[in-house]
């Protein structure tokens, strides 16, 4: 048989070793938490146990009093969206003084990229290729959220996304499982600290398990159909990384995965998550996702939905008021469909989390500490640093950037996003003081001071035209749509400003509600009349710098051909405008790199760098006759104000055995005249095997800072963890004795190449 002739080592030992290391013996604290949880369970009635599995939304429009009775009766174990510490304390008091067993509530919230101080959106943070910075950023976010009484964040979102139409691509780390795994683990460490219950930290919740990013057509919530190999090699690794980093909870996704909705998917939630990965935290459903098994056409009714989600492995039901668990699980026990022991097993990890978080000892929050926490100046500085490190310089013809601060006496700042505070922050921002936001306009004004006249005109308006699910939570409402005559005037005003200025800095892209949840689109062009405005401003003959605010790749083909400088700022957060000003005027040097392939238009979707080869790789660029089959900017791409050269790619062991490892080194030199950062990237390709492997796969990266003329040798390790994959023909993890290509360089098209051989 063919398979027998292929030397395949099923690297179960790797899995075993890695898993064993990750879940070494339970610590004393874990054991103690278990004992306390068991002691509590022994006292609880069945209804009280089921109450712990119930999590309710708390929206500002809902009267606080409507939650009291359920908490008092022990029917509610958790609330989400309480952000007022006084409310937290009042409701917690009901739980710990008036409920029979005094079990505290756990308060959850979407702390996605900051709480009071907003950091760049997660896709931007991934563009930093700087996990240590991301970890510190999420630690800041955790401390702010914890100060108001939030104990639990529904983050990190680690869904791999290869379709920019999907609005939620902004919430993750992009298209690549290796970068995605690094960002996943970093965020878990940042949110949770060195253990669950570390002071000033939160319980993290990795989401959405799993495959949500592959929604068909990029339409939010649509079904995902993903092969097993893609699941194991692409979509699951960032979740595994979170579990290995000790994440305490996980959220089951909304969508249908290969005909079984994720929230009723026992293979995902039990076989993979608990049996294979030994996850010992708890699973919360996405909002109403237990009840939604009915509209999915998977569950018959609420009772069936409760059984299906429970048996799949969902510990806690997040819901508005469906209360599917509360209303149905006791009946299921009484009818002997499930045992009370099964209920205990599902409730235990929830209680353990509350115990580890210290909620029994410290259920309340000190309201006096909130303001000092929010006002800590290091938080804003961290947010600015994150914005600086996340920006990606896409184009810089003739070194137009950085701008000389004294060279321009009249600066026109143009575009609908240049002075929009809400849009500087991005989606999933609710609890900030929006007044503290630095827009690009304000950043440039404070950078230039009296040295230049800075004029502003939005030029055009952009609008979804449909409501977003977060409209009611917006801090600033969208301005009314201009009547036609005003629209014409505003457009002209912007162009006139450019004519009269020495330089135009345009901030274009998408409103924050154009990406995020329920924010998918069918096209990726610049919405509204922005391209028209860009063309009109370019036609003035004045130098134009384009700053982009967006959470997905957009069609920049015209801009790339016609605009000399393009800086991708994403949604940069509270101090984003100052960060952008620093970058534009050379007080900071861009060093971010794209975490997604930047395609040319929506017709290329899906398009990602690590695709498989065809029978005719040389003809790859001709795969469409009407369109280039290369992206506008490749994955991993980004420029600097300085330049880098690579040399001396060395594989320490050109031949080594399966299970062994080699070091790979490469020299990177700053050949320019100023200090700057480069993200050194390592890619591999397995030339043959029991399955075909992607043309390139990222397997290492390091962001380094180099002084002018300085050279650094960057070291990578390639061993079983990097070389194994899940083979579609073996149907298991394998590491194969084959020849590999290896490349190192500054993006996924890196030319510096070598090979090595893995032998039996
Ligand atoms: C989203 C989750 C989020 C939850 C709670 C859902 O609609 O899919 O990502 O954590 O709401 O806000």
What ligands can be seen in this structure?
beta-D-glucopyranose
CATH superfamily of the domain at 391-595: Glycoside hydrolase family 3 C-terminal domain
Overall form: globular
List the uncertain runs.
1-23
Q: How many angstroms does the end-to-end distance come to?
A: 19 Å
Share of helix among residues?
A: 25-40%
CATH level-1 class of the domain at 391-595:
Alpha Beta
Strand element count: 27
Strand % is: 15-25%
Radius of gyration (Å): 26 Å
pLDDT averaged residue by residue: 95
Number of DSSP helical runs: 24
- Architecture of the domain at 391-595, according to CATH? 3-Layer(aba) Sandwich
The name of the CATH topology of the domain at 391-595 is Rossmann fold
Largest sheet, in brief, is:
6 strands, mixed
> Which structural class should the secondary elements be placed in?
alpha/beta
Strand order of the largest sheet: 12-17-16-15-13-14
């Amino acid at each position: 048989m063919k398979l027998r002739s292929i030397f395949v080592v099923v690297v179960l030992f790797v899995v075993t070793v890695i898993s064993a290391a990750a879940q070494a013996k339970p610590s004393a604290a874990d054991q103690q938490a278990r004992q306390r949880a068991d002691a509590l369970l022994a006292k609880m009635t069945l209804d009280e146990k089921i109450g712990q599995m119930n999590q309710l939304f708390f929206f500002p429009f809902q009267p606080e009093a409507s939650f009291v009775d359920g908490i008092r009766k022990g029917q509610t174990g958790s609330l989400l969206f309480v952000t007022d510490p006084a409310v937290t304390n009042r409701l917690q008091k009901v739980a710990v003084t008036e409920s029979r067993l005094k079990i505290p509530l756990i308060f959850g919230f979407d702390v996605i990229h900051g709480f009071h101080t907003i950091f760049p959106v997660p896709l931007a943070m991934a563009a930093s290729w700087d996990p240590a910075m991301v970890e510190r950023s999420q630690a800041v976010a955790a401390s702010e959220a914890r100060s108001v009484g939030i104990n639990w964040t529904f983050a990190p979102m680690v869904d791999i996304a290869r379709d920019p139409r999907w609005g939620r691509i902004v919430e993750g780390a992009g298209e690549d499982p290796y970068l995605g795994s690094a960002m996943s683990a970093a965020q878990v460490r940042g949110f949770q600290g060195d253990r669950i219950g570390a002071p000033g930290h939160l319980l993290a919740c990795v989401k959405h398990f799993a495959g949500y990013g592959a929604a068909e057509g990029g339409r939010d919530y649509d079904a995902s159909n993903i092969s097993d190999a893609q699941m194991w090699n692409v979509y699951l690794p960032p979740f595994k990384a979170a579990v290995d980093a000790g994440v305490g909870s996980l959220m089951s996704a909304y969508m249908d995965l290969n005909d079984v909705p994720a929230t009723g998917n026992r293979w995902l939630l039990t076989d993979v998550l608990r049996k294979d990965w030994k996850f010992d935290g708890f699973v919360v459903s996405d909002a109403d996702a237990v009840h939604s098994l009915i509209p999915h056409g998977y569950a018959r009714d609420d009772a069936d939905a409760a059984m299906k989600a429970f048996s799949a492995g969902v510990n806690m039901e997040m819901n508005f008021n469906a209360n599917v668990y509360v209303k149905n699980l006791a009946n299921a026990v009484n009818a002997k469909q499930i045992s009370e022991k099964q209920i205990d097993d599902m409730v235990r990890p929830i209680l353990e989390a509350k115990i580890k978080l210290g909620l029994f000892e410290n259920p309340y929050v000190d309201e006096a500490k909130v303001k000092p926490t929010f006002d800590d100046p290091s938080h804003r500085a961290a947010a600015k640093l994150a914005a600086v490190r996340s920006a990606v310089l896409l184009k810089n013809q003739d070194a137009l950037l950085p701008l000389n601060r004294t060279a321009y006496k009249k600066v026109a700042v143009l575009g609908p996003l240049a002075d929009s505070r809400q849009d500087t922050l991005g989606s999933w921002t609710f609890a900030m003081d929006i007044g503290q936001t630095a827009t690009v306009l304000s950043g440039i004004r404070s950078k230039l001071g009296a040295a230049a006249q800075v004029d502003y005109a939005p030029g055009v308006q952009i609008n979804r035209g449909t409501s977003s699910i977060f409209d009611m939570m917006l801090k600033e409402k969208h301005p009314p749509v201009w009547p036609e005559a005003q629209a014409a005037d505003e457009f002209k005003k912007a162009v006139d400003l450019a004519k009269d200025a020495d330089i135009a800095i345009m901030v274009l892209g998408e409103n924050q509600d154009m990406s995020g949840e329920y924010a998918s689109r069918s096209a990726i062009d610049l919405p509204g009349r922005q391209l028209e405005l860009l063309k009109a401003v370019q036609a003035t003959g004045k130098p134009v710098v384009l700053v982009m605010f967006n959470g997905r790749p957009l069609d920049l083909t015209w801009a790339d051909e016609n605009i000399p400088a393009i800086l991708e700022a994403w949604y940069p957060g509270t101090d984003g405008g100052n960060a952008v000003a620093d970058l534009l005027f050379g007080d900071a040097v861009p060093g971010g790199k794209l975490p997604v392939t930047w395609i040319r238009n929506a017709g290329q979707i899906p398009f990602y760098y690590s695709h498989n080869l065809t029978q005719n790789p040389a003809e790859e660029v001709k795969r469409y006759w009407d369109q280039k089959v290369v992206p506008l900017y490749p994955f991993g791409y980004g420029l600097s104000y300085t330049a880098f050269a690579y040399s001396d790619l060395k594989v320490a062991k050109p031949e080594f055995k399966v299970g062994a490892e080699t070091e790979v080194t490469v020299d990177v030199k700053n050949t320019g005249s100023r200090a700057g950062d480069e993200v050194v990237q390592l890619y591999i390709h397995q030339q043959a095997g029991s399955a075909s492997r992607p043309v390139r796969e990222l397997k290492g990266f390091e962001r380094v800072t180099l002084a002018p003329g300085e050279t650094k040798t960057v070291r990578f390790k390639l061993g079983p963890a990097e070389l194994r994959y899940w083979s579609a023909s073996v149907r298991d993890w394998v590491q194969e004795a084959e020849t590999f290509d290896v490349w190192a360089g500054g993006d996924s098209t890196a030319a510096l190449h070598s090979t090595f051989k893995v032998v039996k």
